[in-house]
Amino acid sequence: MPSPPDERPVETADRVAPSESGRRATTDVVGLGTARAVWFVAPAMLLIGIFLLFPALWTLYIGSTNFERTGPNHVNPEYTGIDNYTSVLSDPSFYNSLWVTLLFVVFSAVIGQNGLGFWLAWSLRRVDRRVRRTVEALVLLAWILPSSVVAFLWIAMLDRHGGTVNMLLDTPGAAWLVDYPLASIIIFNIWRGTAFSMMLYSAALSSVPPSHLETAQLAGATGAQTLRDVVFPHIRGHVLTNTLLITLWTFNDFGPFLITAGGPGDQTEVAAVYLYNTAIRDGDLGYSGAISLMILLANVVMALTYRRMLRKRSAT
Amino acid sequence: MRGSVRTGGHSKRRGSSIASTGLIAVALVASGCLGGAGDETAADPMRNADVTEFTLTITSNAIEGGKNSDGAEWIEDYVIPRFVEQQAEKGVTATVRFQPVGVDDAEYKSQIGLDLESGKGADIIDVDGIWVGEFAESNFVKPLDEVVGADVVSSWDGWDQIPESVQQNASYQDVRYGVPTGTDGRVIFFNRDVFAQAGLPADWQPTSWEDILTAAQTIKDELPGDIVPLQLNAGTAMGEATTMQGFLPLLAAAGAEIHQDGKWQGDTPAVRRVLELYETVYGSGLGDPVMQAEAKGRDRSFQLFTEGKVGMLLESDYFWRSVVAPGAEVAPMADRDEVVGYAKIPAITPGAGVNGQDFVSMSGGSARVINPNTEFPQQAWELMEFMNSFEATEEQVVSAPRITHREDVNATVLANDPMLTFIAEEVVPLTLFRPGVLEYLDVSVAIQEATYAIIDGATVDEAVARYQSELEAVVGDPDAIATG
Amino acid sequence: MAGRIGFYSVTCLIAAFFAIPLLWLISAPFDASPTYAVEFPEVTLANFATILANPYALPSLLNSVILAIGTAAFVVIGAALAAYALSRVRIPGRDALLYLLLLLSSVVTGTAAMVPLFLLVSEIGAAIHPVLGIDSHFAVMLVMSSGLLPAAIFMLKDFVDGIPPSYEESARVFGASPFRVLKDIVVPLITPGLATITVWTVVNVWGNFLVPFILLRDADKQPAAVLMRTLYTEAGQPNLALLATFSLLYSLPVVLMYLFVSKRYGFRFHGGIKS
């Protein structure tokens, strides 16, 4: 049951190597067939459709009403069209949370986790196996512990009285979570999430042909040159996939709430915390539905930006 | 679980059940089914009154081994077996289940809100007294008279033991929705060791704010710098504690109630006086503003109090019985009875408090309501009566005394605790309760933000301006805000 | 040589950065009255005795295990089938669909969708069969799987993309059915990927508080993430002795699982996610 050949040359921006795209164009070499493929996809799509897509659409619908958890608007919610969206767009708290989230994402995920993850993957390749295993295990431990547990660990780290950081730096009484709240949660999130980037990059680096690296070395290239001219072209796709995933996860991460509760004031009120405060603390469910859509749109913009960057890069 | 609808569709083929899911879903969305908890017509309170077998569920934000463990154990080990036994004597087979929860209050509220909205949930539900109005407005709960019948409710002899003011905790617009389960009061706690070192009296009772500030200044002058003279709850990190254990008692001391004659306090002299006090305390080093900005600041202030590093705290009697009590989990003090002093909160100047009082306080408390969807309203009320009887109430607090809703119980169990007796006899009579008005929780958030602005270094003018505009956003109607 | 020493000191610093926060988890549970300070405790096991006396503590860990295994099964099987098909057969709009689902799953699974999820399960699910209703572990598994599947498919698809189709072609020449090919050829090749997805799923389920909290009422069915929230006092003060001790117990299963999976199957994106 061969599938019909795909005649439209679909521009698949997330395909890097031309040779790969070429191979994919002759799809279905294994004879799966579209019909069977649909059956293979069906269980996952069924679950996603019922328990993700349906509630998501419902949430977006609630976003166009004045529904609240309690009170008259709870009993008789009204359809209010775009009212919630206009009030979200004129709410300074929304822009504050968007800005805080942006800083949080850029510094902790895009720069921090990406950079440290890559550095670990790159530098641990050739070190002693036991050293590598130990470092990797520590990094992974930070990633697999439950977030309510790691919150306590970091409160203990940054506590003003007797916190580990103050003990190590000999800065008794420094209130890191009050004076540098955003920096604190950024460092926390680098600690928390670097493992994913590290794993992804160590896999990616194993796909760089060793002969290319040797050639570069023989030609006398510096480490930086090797990375730029030999390694990066090979792993460009991985960089962007990784960045996309960690950006999405970090954008919607609730972890900071457990450490700073969004404070002091609203200095660490990232999008997920703003949403929690609106939905759970204040019970404004219609409004929180509207915020969800705005956050979704922000995420779409970021995803498209990454795809565009990828397309540009692969064109050069 | 009670109320679960079964359509007997177990053996349907997958396809058809998916189709029906889709149909129901579309129908739900199409009808805009979001809220609409319960119907408007009251069900017969006498339904199932004569059955010989029934099942009831109690839920409370309490869990054995965790939050409010004593409360959970009391229900499981005393209330349920005794009640079932009583029913058995009447020839009725009762099954009573307890559904423990034990999480953050906002999350508990969300959970029971979801249950009540979909017509499910336990038959007897513990709620915070401040939610009663909200829940009533949402048709989540109904007046007791409707749920179990006016004759039945009014014939309960327990009401005589519950002071009118405490009954407000379970009422909305002067209609009873449930039975209150106790109350509390706010006072100024002070560390007698700190006071002694600063040369202040052990039986201190300020009669004006000036007295408080003088004492704080004395501590600051006489003792080393790492001792915080006075910590007032402020900021957003403490949540409702800022409002209840800080702003509102002080507002009462400045002569105003937050919701008075149908109006919220906006930019008024009283609000300004309170914020000025915050500015004085946190601007001149009498209190530690950083601690108020920390997410764990309140816990920290408790810890420091036990270590003799905090002079005064404005707190609820909860602080006495659950935080510093010998053997408590958070910050126990073996010598609590000697070291921890307490004083009534004075008005700005004598007689300047709300209602012309010299001293003020704020109180809260929980309530127990009956789910209007219960299948067995009469039996649920019987269980309520039992839970609020003299014997059951006494049993609940005998090992860990606190102020109950019943005066007869208070008279016996508080006798050995001078602090709680003080609250019951001297504080509760002059206390105020929060308004049971829907917007209160949003107003409370605005108050927390205003006090945060002060500890963050804003002037009183800036903080008041921000508070006023936030209030306008929350309340909507400008006529419902008092200014000037 | 100086470079080498510099490199090792930086590595040590980074190892320390990742290790130091863990100290509290090792010291506080053994401290009779722990604070947020890391101190060498007067070693006591009293906290363990207290937490084990909590009637819900151990059962909650078992519930977490049940939810984690069930959800991981749904996610791994569902994602493997879908990722294989999506990798090998071009379905129009495939990439856009994957992106859209990925975005939705990361945005609309939390607090905002609480009411729809609750009503979906309590009204519609329960009407179909109690096992899809409130208080059912199965329903919780389905809900959590749906939130994790998009990212799992996204990641796994790239593993499958990394396998040259020639292996499968030869198997097909010998007449193996597509399902056989998937089971006997593809799955062994992507085992490290499946292991990674499994660990990722378990970690996510292990930490999820909100979904089980709103969908389960019976305290005997609640997982450890919910129990963790009950170890506070009435006014929200953390009982650090219990929380630290339970944190350790709560963390051990995932750590053990990681060690097991890592030893048995390797724990890396072998071949990598290709984009």
CATH topology of the largest domain in chain B: D-Maltodextrin-Binding Protein, domain 2
Question: Order of helices and strands of chain A, N to C?
Answer: HHHHHHHHHHHHHHH
What portion of residues of chain A belong to β-strands?
Answer: under 5%
Number of strands of chain B: 17
Structural class determined from secondary elements of chain A = mainly alpha
Tell me roughly what share of residues is in helical segments of chain B: 40-55%
CATH architecture of the largest domain in chain B: 3-Layer(aba) Sandwich
- Shape by Cα distribution of chain A: globular
Sum up the overall morphology of chain B in one term. globular
The CATH class designation of the largest domain in chain B is Alpha Beta
Biggest pleated sheet of chain A: none
Using the CA coordinates, give the radius of gyration of chain A. 24 Å
The helix/strand class of chain B is alpha/beta
Strand order of the largest sheet of chain B: 2-1-3-15-6
Summarize the SSE layout with pairings.
The complex is a heterotrimer of chains A (316), B (484) and C (275).
Chain A: H1 18-25, H2 34-62, H3 72-75, H4 83-89, H5 92-123, H6 129-144, H7 147-158, H8 164-169, H9 176-179, H10 181-205, H11 210-218, H12 223-251, H13 255-260, H14 271-281, H15 285-315
Chain B: H1 14-30, E1 53-60, H2 69-89, E2 93-100, H3 105-117, E3 124-128, H4 132-137, H5 144-148, H6 150-154, H7 164-167, E4 171-172, E5 175-176, E6 178-180, E7 186-191, H8 192-197, H9 209-222, E8 228-231, H10 240-253, E9 259-260, E10 263-265, H11 269-283, H12 289-293, H13 297-306, E11 310-316, H14 317-323, H15 336-339, E12 340-343, E13 345-346, E14 359-363, E15 366-370, H16 377-387, H17 390-397, H18 407-413, H19 418-427, E16 431-433, H20 440-455, H21 460-475, E17 481-482
Parallel strand pairs in B: 1-2, 1-3, 8-11, 10-17, 14-16
Antiparallel strand pairs in B: 3-15, 4-5, 6-15, 7-11, 7-12, 9-10, 13-14
Chain C: H1 2-19, H2 23-27, H3 46-53, H4 57-88, H5 94-107, H6 114-128, H7 137-161, H8 166-173, H9 178-189, H10 191-207, H11 210-215, H12 224-228, H13 240-265
Helix pairs in contact in C: 3-13, 4-7, 4-10, 5-7, 7-10, 8-9, 10-13
